[in-house]
Amino acid sequence: MEGKMIKISAPGKVILHGEHSVLYGKTALAVSLGLRSTVIIKVLAPTDNPKIHVYFPNMDLDETLPLKPIIEQLFTTSISRKCSWNEPTKIDHESHLKKVDGVLHMIRPGFDDLLSNQRNSLRCFMYAFGGIFGNSGLNISDFSIKLTSDLTVGAGTGSSASFSVCICAAMLQLVKLKDSENVGDFSVEEKNIVSTWAYNCEKITHGAPSGVDNTTCTHGSLVSFKKGEDPLLLPSPELRVLLVDSRVGRETSRLVAAVKVLHGRNVAAVDHIMEAMNHVALKAAELLKKLSNTKSKEDIEAIYKHLHELWEMNHCLLASLGVSHPVLETIRSAARDHGLACKLTGAGGGGNAIVLIPPSTEESTVDALKTKLMNSGFRVTDTLVGGKGVEIHN
């Protein structure tokens, strides 16, 4: 086993349509993002005092943790086992998390002095390690785990879900490697297991997540979701977009509260706006399904033109709720000057905008827009949305 390596990546996500309206019972669409997180596990030579080397450079976290107390506190025996690694819904989340917190305080002096994202990343890792590998009945010795990411923390691009999916998928692969050395691609059933464990990890960071982020980062492509319902996987082709970071921080809770106040004063008007956004999301899903099933250049061009209209419409509906920002309007204006559709993504008030790049767009047009935006101080990433979910890299 010594020298064996597991390498896995998972995408981020962006909201395509349905920001804010999803909180009012309407349909929203999330899509996987071409920016990814990557985790590498290396099985090391066994030692008398086995350890785990945890290196998460994006979190500025570099820790060496003793393995023995983790096994003693978090691993279950065949007698005490109440759930298996492949039954994440059966775990007592609060009880398991309490054990995780207890062991981290035991083995990592000054744990409470770490930054919140550092603490939560260690909690998520330990939760998945104890919950998945710790319920496998398999033995483990020294190993290292390194996780890097293209995603910016707190930018609304699913960084925590991408992290959680990577960690949980890596733990599942470690079980498979130790059990049979068969580390082939994930089956649909295994992806569902990864997604559910990642959802549990997301509860550590977000309290009451919707489930859409972990679903999108696990399965990729397009995900439709409504409040109170399970996320639904939908067909979608990859779309080329420019992800534009406005460099203006966003306060999601403040924006949600402001929309709630606006709704309270103008119930009928805001309800109509939310319903209009619902129609935009449903029509976009219909168009993306058509786009994934056609090769006709004329049909593709017509669909992109229709998507262009929906992106513009969706942004203006959001702006009417007061969740745009002068910098987002500056980005939109630049895109419009180049004939391209642009909308905010996420809560708004800053954060990111996405620009749709139809395949017929001249590359010189894209380059000119990127140059203009970067010269204006924005961070621009030319990427794809709607691509693969979690992947194993041999």
From TrEMBL:
UniProt keyword terms in alphabetical order: ATP-binding, Cytoplasm, Kinase, Lipid biosynthesis, Lipid metabolism, Magnesium, Metal-binding, Nucleotide-binding, Steroid biosynthesis, Steroid metabolism, Sterol biosynthesis, Sterol metabolism, Transferase
Enzyme superclass (EC): transferase
GO BP term (any one): cholesterol biosynthetic process
Ranges where the GHMP kinase C-terminal domain occurs: 297-370
Pathway(s) where this gene product acts: Isoprenoid biosynthesis; isopentenyl diphosphate biosynthesis via mevalonate pathway; isopentenyl diphosphate from (R)-mevalonate: step 1/3
EC number: 2.7.1.36
InterPro entries: GHMP_kinase_C_dom (IPR013750), GHMP_kinase_N_dom (IPR006204), Mev_gal_kin (IPR006205)
Record localization: Cytoplasm
GHMP kinase N-terminal domain: residues covered: 137-220
Name of a matching Pfam family: GHMP_kinases_C
Superkingdom of this protein's organism: Eukaryota
An example Gene Ontology CC term for this record: cytosol
Chemical reaction(s) catalysed: (R)-mevalonate + ATP = (R)-5-phosphomevalonate + ADP + H(+)
GO molecular function term, any single one: mevalonate kinase activity
Family: Belongs to the GHMP kinase family. Mevalonate kinase subfamily.
Stored NCBIfam families: mevalon_kin (TIGR00549)
PANTHER family referenced in this protein's UniProt entry, alphabetically: MEVALONATE KINASE
Name this protein carries in UniProt: Mevalonate kinase
Organism this protein belongs to: Parnassius apollo
